[in-house]
Amino acid sequence: MAPERENRERVVSGATATSRPRTRLDQPMPPRRRLLPEWDPEAFGRLSERIARFLGTGRFIVWMTVVIIMWVAWNVLAPTDLRFDTYPFIFLTLMLSLQASYAAPLILLAQNRQDDRDRVNLEQDRKQNERSIADTEYLTREIASLRVGLGEVATRDWIRSELQDLMKDLEEHHGDGQVVFPAERSGGRDVDDR
Question: Are 29 and 23 in contact (CB under 8 A)?
Answer without folding.
Answer: yes
